[in-house]
Amino acid sequence: MGKWFSKLYDPVMEPLERLKFRYIRETLIHKAKGNVLEIGSGTGLNFPYYTQAVKVTAIEPDPTMRKKSLKRAEHA
């Protein structure tokens, strides 16, 4: 994907995040336990919700999104 997509992803998704996705993340991802493999982790928005996971392995092919994802993982 182009750099423009990864740069705009979080700001463009924020309204949807507030309206719906945050609730989904809080209710579903919070239930993940043990070892988790997340394919297409994007900018790492799910990371703070893996509270019961022992280990999270994330794969993100886009280098710019992966960079954001790694930063977010450090704070999760």
From TrEMBL:
Transmembrane segments: none annotated. SUPFAM superfamilies: S-adenosyl-L-methionine-dependent methyltransferases. Signal peptide: none annotated. GO terms for molecular function: methyltransferase activity. Gene3D superfamilies: Vaccinia Virus protein VP39. One of its GO terms (biological process) is methylation. Keywords: Methyltransferase, Transferase. This is Putative methyltransferase.
